[in-house]
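Chapter summary example.
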Amino acid sequence: MGKNILVIDDDKLVRMTLKRLLSKESYRVSIAESGQEALSLLETNPFDLIISDLKMPGMNGIETVKRIREYLEQNNKSPVPEIFISAYAKEDIYQEALKLNAKDYLEKPFDIAALLQSIKKAIESK
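The structure predicted for these 126 residues follows.
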């Protein structure tokens, strides 16, 4: 049975591309265009992995992941590994992402093989 992946990105093209790519790899993919939408999806769906953009309007990827972790802990749910993706590799945001100990950080445009390897590794670590 395929694993459930939540993709959070404000860019529609990125969301649709990742959904298509990951669905072909037998993953079940849910998409959210904001951190708030991701939190809503988390209330009704279990996920095996979260892939989140770092730079989004409103709640950025760092804040989104922090809120997701709080929600999971408060509701006695297992932690979910995260992979950050970003086209804006600003050093301060990258350092914040590293402090969260996410499973990986990939710069857009990312290599598909590297992304798939990162996903497999992150899900296996759960």
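To summarize the output: The mean pLDDT is 92.
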